[in-house]
Each structure stands twice: as structure tokens, then as C-alpha cells.
């Protein structure tokens, strides 16, 4: 019985993947910050490509007209894979005023393909705009991460004010990966007066791009919170601040369902998103009360185990 439980959760736990680790196997010249595509001509036009930011987001030219993203899904996807992508879109639609519509003849659209990783441009770049979601990327939190890039959001840990909230331990970063922690200049992004969000789906985990310590037999931490009691985890659900930023970005009308923020100095406590769904593909009720899997259950099977 124990072996059965172990094997079940071995597959189950494997579902927690980091998109930047998937992308490490790809060889794309204009890929930056783990999963952000940049225009090749912009990449070549500056002396230090590591200082390149993806999109100047305060410009209206990279906004999606009428908050509508037209898209096509590659025929490479199987029906269940298409369903996963569309469900991630629908979840964003229910929480914001953005819409995802299948393209007919529109000039600007997302060309969602099963390439060799998980990556996207930030904002609208015009024309046929590639977004890659390979088979290893088809989890709701990864799909939503890339969709938020396409809508215009950057990584949370690259905010220009991030040093007030986290310490990046560059000595623990894998050699050659330091540029993934570049701060994006204040004249390139607008924070909309939103507090730093450790729970953002756009925030990488504490060991992102960490080098492996063979003595300790683990990856080293690359990001540490500056305040006690805070952890930087793999965030697999949209936070309420993620949704708040999207609503500001899209100038969405306020709704009664929006959560209230309780400010405490530099840090902000937010009510959790009211979404209630399982992250894992297979959740079983008989595992809900097995102590050894308690933490995994709370992270991946909250609906099946009635934790939300």
C-alpha cells in the first residue's frame, strides 16, 4: 500500500515544474530572463544585451486593443492540451476584463505553438506573435504566467524596487545566469503603486537559477526575503495582486468581488484569490488524510480534499 501511495505521489509531485528549467534545453538567441522573448533587432541594437528589457509597457502601442487578445492554437495540440490552454484563458476572463478570442482575420494575434519551451513576448508586439507552450508547459500556472507576459506584465522579482524586499545572492547563482536577476528600470515599467507581491505567479521561487551544491546535495537559494516570516515558493495560483495589476492595466471597472488590501508598512497582506481548483492532474480523496502527503495535498489538491 505504501509503495502504491509513493508511486502515485511521485507522478503527482513531478507536476511541479519550473518553466525556466524547461527552457534551459532550448537554444533561442532572443530569449531573456528565463522565458521572455525580445525582438531580434532590439537585441542586436544595444551594446549590452543583458540589460535589455522586453517591452516599454507605458506605451499604448503595445496594449491589446479593446483588451482583446486574438489567438490561434497550433494543430500540434491534442484536444486535452487545447482544453488546458483555453481553461487558463477562461479563468483570466472571469477575473479581469480581458478577453481571449480565436482569430479569424485579425492582424495582431498570439500564435500559440508547441515549440521547445515555455516563453512569450511581453505585451503586444504586432503581427503574428509567437507564444510557445510545449508539452511540459501545459499546467495552468505556467500557461497563466505566459499569458500574463503577453498581456504586459514582467517578472515581479525584477522590479526596480525589489532590493527593499528581497536579497539576491549572486554568489549562489549558476554561472552565466546572473542576468536573469537584472532589475528593470523605472522608466521602462509602471508599478501602478502596487505593493511587492511574494505570492505573484510572476515571481520565481527562492532557488531559481541556483547552482547545485554537491556537498549539501541541493540547489542553493538565490533570493531571500528581507522580512522574517515570508517564504518565496513556487507560486502556482494567481494572487489577488496579480489580478489587481491586470485590472489596472486593462482599466477594468471595479467589481464588488475584488478583495480588499490591508497595508502594513512596506508589506501588504491580501486576501487569497477565491479560485478553488486542483493543480495536479490526478488527486485522490483517499490521500487527503495521509499525514506524509499533507503539504503536497495542501498545495496541489485543495478542491478534491475540500480545503477551499
UniProtKB/TrEMBL annotation:
Q: What class of enzyme is it?
A: hydrolase
- Key word Protease present: yes
Supply the SUPFAM superfamilies for this chain.
Metalloproteases ('zincins'), catalytic domain
Q: How is the cofactor bound?
A: Binds 1 zinc ion per subunit.
**Gene Ontology MF terms in the entry:** metalloendopeptidase activity; zinc ion binding
- Active site (catalytic residues): 146
| Chain positions recorded as Zn(2+) binding sites | 145, 149, 155
Q: Which PROSITE patterns match?
A: ASTACIN
InterPro entries to which the protein is assigned, alphabetical: Astacin-like_dom, MetalloPept_cat_dom_sf, Peptidase_M12A, Peptidase_Metallo
Please give the positions of the paired cysteines in each disulfide bond. Answer: 97-252
Entry EC no(s): 3.4.24.-
Q: Which residues form the signal peptide?
A: 1-16
**Record's keyword terms, sorted:** Disulfide bond, Hydrolase, Metal-binding, Metalloprotease, Protease, Signal, Zinc
> What processes in GO biological process is this protein linked to?
proteolysis
Residues covered by the Peptidase M12A domain: 54-253
Q: Which cofactor does it need?
A: Zn(2+)
Tell me what this protein is called: Metalloendopeptidase
**What organism is listed for this UniProt entry?**
Bursaphelenchus okinawaensis
